[in-house]
Design goal:
TIM Barrel, alpha/beta, 12 strands, single chain, 345 residues, 28% helix, twelve-stranded mixed beta sheet
Length: 345
């Protein structure tokens, strides 16, 4: 097993090697633990589902740690665990505990259904922030979007996370004529609770029947908020470095909100993210169909650092080379990519 403290990469080499050809320094790793999920969200999983594969195709628990350790040795400062739904993975409690021992910030994105079973595990691993997906505040509508009925359990677990002192972000994929009439309702959740509400533009992936006719952009959302609260009451917040969201607060509210505008206003110029899928493939961009196999070389005992660095250096300037909206709207440009559930949220 690799020990991140024993990987011989000097600070100077890290500064040089972690940069892509556009000067972007990559310090944030998202690791998908599984392609399985206990929801079937329409924007994430194809209606017919996905082909299930033998567990031998996927990283074993010790391989997740080994992979993460190598990345930390290359300067990764933050790791987010994703899925599918990461908490359905067998042995995820051990993975979380082991990763909590690395010299990096650890966070997790979840649909919230099983959170109550892992609160102590989160605390032990030093997790302080949890992202929870919730696409409607109407139980029947949430069931239509997710094709499962877990609304009450998700809401209880969001409250539990707050009670236990976690920073909580609620992620909403905004879709026209589906849940766009709930924008204000979500903002109102943050009136008395320190929630960060994050509205995500509907993005194209293989199998989710994407069309921008179903999308709501940043400008349209901000118009809705301005009409309701007034421009003077919407306060701009300084985002963290490399933030994916444009962040705001309503004057006097306990929480905040942000908009992730990957479609209409991409944040590619400051992107510092790398993704590793559950089957051990590295993706340098969410929109890219190109992948670097890390798992098989790792199993052969090979040094995967050159593969990681080469994969980062190949990263395109904007959305895997899809620079215009017309490029993004061309279905052939994203049908070669994976389904969202097999990439990792």
């Amino acid at each position: 097993m690799y020990d991140s403290n024993n990987i011989s990469v000097s600070p100077t080499e890290i500064d040089q090697k972690i940069l892509d050809s556009f000067g972007r320094k990559h310090e944030y790793l998202r690791i998908s633990l599984t392609e399985r999920c206990n929801l079937r969200c329409t924007y994430c999983m194809p209606e017919q589902g996905i082909q299930l594969r033998d567990k031998s195709h996927f990283m074993r628990n010790e391989e997740v740690f080994e992979m993460a350790s190598i990345f930390v040795g290359l300067g990764i400062k933050k790791i987010r665990l994703t899925g599918g739904e990461p908490l359905v993975r067998k042995g995820v409690d051990n993975i979380i505990t082991d990763l909590g021992g690395l010299n990096t910030e650890l966070t997790i994105s979840t649909n919230g259904i099983l959170v109550d079973q892992f609160i102590d595990n989160f605390k032990k691993a030093g997790i302080k922030s949890v992202n929870v997906s919730l696409d409607s505040l109407k139980p029947g509508r949430q069931e239509l979007i997710t094709r499962r009925n877990y609304y009450d359990r998700i809401r209880r677990n969001i409250d539990l996370l707050l009670e236990e002192g976690f920073a909580v972000k609620i992620n909403i994929v905004v879709m026209k004529n589906i849940n766009d009439d709930e924008l204000i309702d979500f903002i109102e959740l943050s009136k008395d609770k320190p929630l960060h509400i994050r509205f995500i533009e509907f993005m194209p992936f293989n199998g989710n029947n994407w069309s921008w006719d179903k999308g709501i952009g940043l400008a349209e959302m901000m118009n809705t908020f301005s009409d309701r609260y007034g421009v003077e009451s919407i306060l701009k917040i300084q985002e963290e470095a490399n933030s994916t969201a444009k962040c705001f607060a309503i004057d006097g509210y306990a929480g905040t909100f942000g908009i992730i505008s990957s479609v209409t206003n991409p944040f590619c110029s400051t992107c510092n993210r790398i993704r590793v899928t559950a089957d051990g493939k590295m993706k340098n961009c969410l929109f890219s169909s190109e992948e670097t196999d890390l798992l098989n070389p790792l199993r052969r005992g090979e040094n995967i650092i050159p593969l990681i660095l080469q994969g980062i250096s190949n990263k395109k300037a904007i959305r895997a080379g899809m620079e215009s909206f017309d490029d993004l709207s061309n279905p052939t440009n994203f049908e070669k990519n994976r389904n969202m559930i097999t990439i990792g949220g």
